[in-house]
Amino acid sequence: MSSAHKYYVSVTQLNYVKEKKVVQIISRIDISDFELTLQERYDKNIKMTNIDEKPMVDDYVKKYLNQKIEIKINTKDVGFSYIGKEYDNDVVVCYLEIENIDKITTIEVSNTILFDKFPKQKNVIKTKINSKVNNLIFTKDDRNQYLNFK
Amino acid sequence: MKLLKYLCLSIAFISLNVVAQEQEPQSGHVNQNKFKQLYDEFSTPNMYRTGSGAPGPAYYQQQADYKMDIEIDDETAVLSGNETITYTNNSPDVLSYLWVQLDQNVRQKDSPSKDINSSRITPAMSASRFSSSYMSERFDGGFNVESVTATNGSDLPHMINQTMMRVELPQPMKTGDQFSFKIKWWYQVNNHVTDGGRSGYELFPDGNRNYVIAQFYPRMAVYNDVEGWQNSQFWGRDEFALPFGNFEVNITVPSDHLLDGTGRLMNRKDVFSSDMMKRYEKAKKSYDEPVIVSTQAEAEVREKGRSKKKNTWKLYAENVRDFGFATSRKYIWDMMAVKIGNKDVMAVSLYSKEGNPLWEQWSTKAVASTLKSYSRMTFDYPYHKAISVHARRQGMEYPMICWNYGRPDENGKYDDRTKYGMMSVIIHEVGHNFFPMIINSDERQWTWMDEGLNTFMQYVAEQDFGEWYPTALSASDDAYPSRRGPAKKITRYMGGNQDRIAPIMTKGLNTYQFGNNAYGKPATALNILRETVMGRELFDYAFKEYANRWMFKHPTPEDFFRTMEDASAFDLDWYWRGWFYSTDWVDVGLKEVKKYYVSSEPNQYAKNYAESRDLNLEDLNWVYLVEEGSEEFNEKLRKGTSADNSPSLKEYMMDNFTEEERKNIKQPKYFYDITFEKPGGLVMPIIVEFTYADGTSKTETYPAQIWRYNDNEVSKAIASEKEIVSIKVDPKLETADIDTSNNSWPKEVKENDFDKFKNKVKG
After folding, report:
1. Which residues of B628-652 are buried (b: 16+ CB within 10 A; e: fewer)?
2. How far apart are CA B572 and CA B575, in angstroms?
């Protein structure tokens, strides 16, 4: 049996780099699942590919991530900039960045990537903030996670 | 003053006493050494299965032979069948009932398998999700068993529990007894694209269907010495356990359909056109390029018609554990011969025009290449053909036949992901002919035994394929870009959240991250074992021995583990324990490197030693080593040889070696005390690369057993004639070390992945 489409987990690494005052986010999402979701949601012609990919794909990825990942730092909503994405075998690797973060005392995250298409989807965010490591797990029924560094 | 000193001492003494009292009393412990043998985990060897991992003198297996008449009504997509099962009891046990598997019952409207996953109300959802969740009827695709009878026509009492049916025997079966019985059934075939499943049809816009049919008949469960009846329910994900037997199957489909399946086609002349016969004869002698037996033009004519007439395709297979077939009007059919040992095997592909141009270019060649690679590593492929059928979003294996995905877009264009995905899935599914179709492990219990071993072999076969068919590779690749196998590809998983990781030795249904658990990790573990721990020569011999011992038999995990050790004299209990029975990960690093020079001046260590034992250092003739940067170190020590800097050494050499010997003797000048740390739980060999000041380098491997006394850190003293400028642990990333930031001395400051990508896109 092929194992494609057998597990539904996205894994995101979220690091706070204090020296640079930035939060660096690398999100790894199954390419087939992501493509199907974007096709159904926005445009059936979306094709994630290394060869002659249409520029609209990046626009939709950006739009989708903006809709599905919400971050509050020190109780304020913070937007992230979409740096870009690359493909690593069956995985889309997305790079997001939040700038001008002087310190983090609390962070609240919601990650609902692919829940709209795959009800069994789980999203994991590993955080490294103020030298502390945490694992946040998001499911359809558990969409918000909160960390306090006070 | 004296009094005060005494007082201080006694206070010190008292406080020491207090400390001692506060210490936890020690307690004993059981053996938790990572190198402890697996006596507790392994079952006791017996007459059925020996301690060497081979089948024992009393090993037995049951046999199930089938005669079936099957018909597919293409208008209603209903499959109906009539079978006679002849079951042979080769066990020493008396059986009073038989268990028959009714896999399609997983698609029954009220099947509990549909309720195995938890669900909750979502406050908001898409309209289509809402409608499919709450408004539509569940598809009803379970078996409708019309009758279960003895050969004389009398009803046999039976009871259906979900996907398992217990059939009562009129008389208990003793050793050697045979019993034949008949089952008549039908079921509604599912659309596997919309309803899921590994068997079913794809519906094309013009109304044509492509049927890829399996688990379509009531199948005997396995009875053996390990499980008794393997009647663990089918929940949809974990696969199958099936006995071997012979199949005589007649399949009736519309006369404009083509069909192929498990076994020899016995009436080829009745169902092939004369053109097809001619091309088939040609294909049997074509070893390099596939010959098209049924063309795209012919398929396009066929798919416009809807014949009311029927054709019956007769297939016969010996010593197979299962039966599958594929049928459609849409098939293009190509074949070529491939030499396996001294025999010709046919590599075959069936695909609709939607699969082209990819399928006509690569499917059959991938089949042929896979048979060669696997045969080299195990045994000569014993069947006469292997078929790859193109089916949307499928990747599933049966004896001699498998379904594979990989479809170009409407304009026939495809990218690397589609191309390599298609080649990889074909190699994987064709490879399953060996694991588990012939080396017939229990998939229901141990997913890794077929998927893990097969994914390991898939890696080997993919690398061969890339080498044998370089034009299959894209310009940017110089080797086949295998997704699983290389050590560094598994580190993300193994270093992940422990809450979502299960040991490989877990029943397939219950594992998290199925793909990594049952495919990726065991495949990588075996690849590391082959390339890094045992070496190819020892590994390949033992792996082949396992394959041959258990060819056409039912092995367990222990049979594999034991055989690998039995045939190699390589104690691997520590490896199985760590990689297969635990979720530990590899992380080995450099904790500290100290550099020493030889000195003529006694160092503090020597002085203390001599003083405490009342010895005179001058009588000892010791060679002293001082650490670079310590108080005892001085720059002069960097100059001259070790003998120049140590009179004791010089005199010893004068007394014990001839001038000729002294000239040629190795004289290390640089001494290193290297401490390795192991934050990870897995023990692994330490691979260390030393780079010298003159630019050369040398790699040393310390066996895993170096960790047997201390599981956290070990040290090595290195004496070198050349100065070492850097040390790197696991320089080629072959051990699956999850954190390489502690692998270098001096520490390498690496740009992180994020900054690397950002700098790349910003240019």
Report:
1. eeeebbeeebeeeebbebbebbbee
2. 5
Give the Å distances, CA to CA, from B391 to A49, B75, B258, B387, B429. Answer: 22, 20, 15, 12, 13
- Give the separation between CA B388 and CA B400, rounded to whole angstroms: 9
Is B429–A2 a contact, with Cβ atoms under 8 angstroms apart? yes
Q: Is B598:B649 a contact under the CB 8 Å cutoff?
A: yes
Contact B448, B454 (CB under 8 A): no
Q: How many Å separate Cα B458 from the centre of its chain?
A: 9
- Determine whether the interchain pair A2/B394 forms a contact, defined as Cβ–Cβ distance below 8 Å: yes
Q: Is-cis flag, bond preceding B357, omega within 30? A: yes
**Within the 367-426 window of chain B, which residues sit less than 8 Å (CB to CB) from chain A?**
393-397, 404-405, 409, 415-417, 421, 425
Coil/strand/helix, residue B635:
helix
Nearest to B233 by CA among B133, B156, B317, B164: B164
> B189-197: long-range contacts (C-beta < 8 A, 24 or more apart)?
B189/B72, B189/B77, B189/B78, B189/B79, B189/B141, B189/B213, B190/B107, B190/B139, B190/B141, B192/B391, B192/B393, B192/B394, B193/B392, B193/B393, B195/B107, B195/B139, B195/B141, B197/B107, B197/B141, B197/B236
Rounded Cα–Cα distance for residues A30 and B165 (Å): 39
Measured between its terminal Cα atoms, the distance across chain A in Å is 49
3-state SS record for B336-405 = EEEEECCEEEEEEEEECHHHCCHHHHHHHHHHHHHHHHHHHHCCCCCCCEEEEEECCCCEEEECCEEEEC
pLDDT at residue B380 above 90? Answer: yes
Chain center to CA of B190: 30
- Dihedral, CA of residue B500, residue B504, residue B505 and residue B511, to nearest 10: 40
Query: Which residues in chain A (12-71) have CB-CB distances under 8 A to chain B?
Result: 15, 24-26, 28, 31, 47-51
Stated pTM of the model: 0.89
- What's the gap in Å between the CA of A136 and the closest CA on chain B? 10
State pLDDT tens for residues B455-506: 999 999 999 999 999 999 999 899 999 999 999 999 989 998 888 899 999 9
CB < 8 Å to A9, chain B: 500, 513
Nearest 10 degrees: CA dihedral of B482, B485, B486, B491? 120
The whole-angstrom separation of Cα B704 and Cα B682 is: 10
* CB-based contact A146:A106 (threshold 8 Å): yes
Mean pLDDT of B157-182: 97
Contacts of B416 in chain A (CB under 8 A): 49-51
- Subunit contact B396:A1, Cβ cutoff 8 A: yes
Give the largest Cα separation in chain B, rounded: 120
pLDDT tens, position by position, B1-53: 444 444 444 444 444 444 445 678 899 999 999 999 999 999 999 999 999 99
Radius of gyration of chain B (CA): 34
Per the CB < 8 Å rule, is A47 touching B417?
A: no
List CB contacts of B233: < 8 A, sequence separation 6 or more: B113, B161, B162, B163, B164
- Residue for token digits 């930035």? A22
Which letter does DSSP use for residue B517 in this model? I
Reported as type and span, the H/E element at residue B11 is helix B2-22
Reported in sequence order, the residue ranges of chain A that DSSP labels E, i.e. its strands, are: 9-17, 22-30, 69-73, 76-78, 81-88, 91-98, 106-111, 122-129, 132-138, 144-148
Question: How far is CA B728 from each of CA B233, B531, B722, B733, rounded to the nearest angstrom?
Answer: 50, 19, 17, 11
Minimum CA–CA partner of B519 in chain A: A3
Closest Cα partner for B347 from B419, B291, B267?
A: B291
Tell me the C-alpha distance between B316 and B570, whole Å.
43
Q: Which residues pair with B299 in a beta bridge?
A: none
